[in-house]
Fold this sequence. Notes:
Layout: E1 15-27, E2 30-36, E3 51-53, H1 62-74, E4 80-87, E5 99-100, E6 109-110, E7 112-121, E8 133-137, H2 153-167, H3 173-183, H4 196-205, H5 210-215, H6 236-250, H7 267-278, H8 284-293, E9 297-304, E10 312-317, H9 321-324
Parallel strand pairs: 1-7
Antiparallel strand pairs: 1-2, 1-3, 2-8, 4-7, 5-6, 9-10
Amino acid sequence: MSESPTAPAGAASGVQIVLSGVLLAVTNEVPRVLTVDRSELGRSDDPALPFGALDPVADRTLEIALRKWVREQSGLELGYVEQLYTFGDRDRDDRRRVEAPSTAGERGAAQRILSIAYLALVEEREVAATTRAEWSDCYRFLPWEDRREGRTKRLQGLLAELEQWAAGVPAQRAARRERIEIAFGLGPGGWDTERVLERYELLYEARLVHEGRRGAGEAGASGDPIYTSQAMAVDHRRILATALGRLRGKLKYRPLVFELMPDEFTLLQLQRAVEALAGVRLHKQNFRRLVERGGLVEGTGRRHTQTGGRPAELFRFRREVVRERAAPGVGLPARREVRG
């Protein structure tokens, strides 16, 4: 698969600019990401993030171009959007080299593809039936990031494989073990929810994700060998990991989670949404105390009667808090450790 849906921008210099979007939602306590099937563009049938090439003449801004591609590929209109990162490694697509004319007019120069990625937070909506887009569980692609059930047997198996990889090169054993300990929270520092990209890069280097084997020229099925998960096209799983880590960090000092909530919600629904994104369980009382004392929400005077128990009070986001405080995030209070 190649990120080349239209004629490349900047072809004369051998550079193509592509816009990629990570659209995240939370539905029924599951973090969801929008993926598209663009297998007609290349040899991969792995899911991709919505993307498209920048038209340097027609697209007035990068964000306008992104919104256009998302609309065409899913039928969705974006709300909150922020620029995430630019991905420009020379061999982003390990399966295909795009030939482009050099500045001297000679063929044979490998085209450099720069992907400018954006993060968008939305409520999950039905995609247009005429598109090839669908919503997927984020943890289908990054299952080791979901620690809500503790350290599962599958995670233990993954850690055992990493230990074998660390021991494979005696001269690097100590350094590799230290990286594993820090990334996967095995030491006194514990699990850091924000190290999503660091964990993915470690698994890539150890060839415990399909993209790592693909980058090394090894054939094999699309799934990962140990911790069963789904690969993504090109380097889109790396982009997704970057986006999830960024979002987890910003939950602590920006009220972004409310972009994913309905107008009215219970405090338990809010907590479950934060837990879904952070991948950890939180102490209920500590979370509620932090949210209420921080002035993030206000009661509506109404109650949610479909809880299966005592009706719960409905709240809404206090938008005034953005002007009142410099860092009005949910803060991710001490998590509740689940023994798996």
